Amino acid sequence: MQNASRADEQRRVDHVIDRLHHRLDVVAHQIDTAHAETRDVEQNYGDNTKVNITEVDDRMETNAAVQQQKQLVARAVENEQILQKEQTRLTRLARSPYFGRIYITEDGEDDTLYIGTGTFQDSDNQFLVYDWRAPVASIYYNGTLGPVDYTTPVGTAHATLNNKRQFQIEDGQIRNMFDTSETVGDSILQEVLGDASSEYMQNIVATIQQEQNTIIRDTSSDLLLVQGAAGSGKTSAVLQRIAFQLYHSRTTLDANQMVLFSPNKLYATYISQVLPSLGEKNMIQTTLVEFLARRLTGLQVETLFDRFERDEASFPAAAKAMRRLKESAAFMDAATAYAKHGAEPHFVDVDLNGETFFAAKNIRKIYDRLPRQMTLADKFAETRKRLMKRLNTRIGLETHQDWVDDTLASLNEEQVQHYIGDQRFENGADELRAVARAVVAERFAPVYTALYDDYFFDPYLNYLDFLRQYPQTVVDAATWTAMCDAVGADLEAHRLRLDDAAPLMMIRDVLTGGGQNHGIQSVFVDEMQDYSIAILKYLHHAFPRAQLTFLAMWLKTCSRAITLTVRVTWRSCNTTLPTCIPAS
Description:
Elements: H1 6-48, H2 56-95, E1 100-106, E2 109-116, E3 120-121, E4 127-131, H3 138-142, E5 146-152, E6 155-170, E7 173-179, H4 187-194, H5 199-203, H6 208-216, E8 223-227, H7 234-248, E9 258-262, H8 265-277, E10 284-287, H9 288-295, E11 300-301, H10 304-313, H11 317-326, H12 329-342, E12 350-352, E13 355-358, H13 360-368, H14 376-398, H15 402-410, H16 413-420, H17 428-443, H18 445-452, H19 459-469, H20 477-492, E14 495-496, H21 498-512, E15 522-525, H22 533-542, E16 547-552
Parallel strand pairs: 2-4, 8-16, 9-10, 9-15, 11-14, 15-16
Antiparallel strand pairs: 1-2, 1-6, 3-4, 5-6, 6-7, 12-13
Helix pairs in contact: 1-2, 6-7, 12-21, 14-18, 15-17, 19-20, 19-21, 21-22
């Protein structure tokens, strides 16, 4: 099999595709059956879950039936989704089952393995195609002919790589195939090599895929920096890294636990089409503008484009110096220290219909009376909790007011249903009290929103307070004061400069204990050179448990790249960051 001819290889492709189509027929039938079962379960759901509230035992039995039916529906839907996912994967493989082949000797036995974008086994559970992310598939990317090692879940395995073959298969037909000691990622180069026997041509891309594979399969680095010129393959490597992480940690990691920061929406659209082709669903995608807009609701935050236009028009040297300061790591550290050790939250009145519902001075009293040994976050949360309790008390008292009685008297049956929903009551008095409370709660809803969203606290005043007391030396005192006043004026107009965003959010988060997402496990940032150190530090704060992968143009701290005729090689370099593998 090591020296199989093109005709032999085409026959194998035909056989694999035939098995794929057979499996697709089986899956299609299973999907139809599963869909019918799901429909039947959903149709029977209502009949089997009619509420009986006459007796306590009846209510308990009804609740058990509801839970059982919910589980049946969930299992039926999940089964159908699993089958649909398999159908999508098999359909993709049927067009191009695999792209590589390795002929190895392991434990004294020869074996030929074909590598594709997904695993496929025949009816006898024999592997016809191995997923490119499987441990043994790393030989295809990392191995040169001769002894090779690869990592498995139970330790390191040893083998001998006798031959490596690469394919271009389109619509079931082999377009090109060639043997090589390396792995070629460039489609144009693949075509050239398919018709060339020159050893020099076959080795011109030496180390490209091996270094790229190092990036893709790295699971230990908390921070990975990939650097290189435009068009060098950084994005391609990182997309494969995302797909590999989802495969490698499939029992503990889901796509909704990964975030990719894209340069723009057009890029995000491209990415959304690539990942499914690698066998995975899309992760969460956002841009820096969208991220800041969600975190700074109500403010128009300056974009990178807005900043560029302002800089092109004219930007004084003093303003540049202040920007560099505010975007530095030292400034972010100072903002964090201010919030932790020197700040008192600036509380503001909570109003309802033009009248003060909770006065700022009273909120301050609640906060100040809490034990000093409590953390800032705990004090803030406890203050909110006590305000909520007072709101609930006010709602209860308000239900006895005349305006509530007048409102209740004017309600029709549909409006009553709006307030009580699916609730059931033992008698009319209980129902009346519930409706009265719901009416008042609806009237007081803006107060609840203000408490829930922390609108009783003004982080902008705290940020201005921090700016005014910061011991800077980059400009004179008068210039710094003028800058602080300008920031205050912008905030009054609901505007914010980009360089103020990260320190402001950090101060707010530390004081309130919010802003952190502990569920996100991986964060990817493309065009990292467009992000200030302050923003990057904030991302690390916002996603404290996430591994970080940054893509950037060449940084000055890294060694120069070596440019080849067809493509650029990948080399290691030294930088102040923990890991730096430039893609150039």
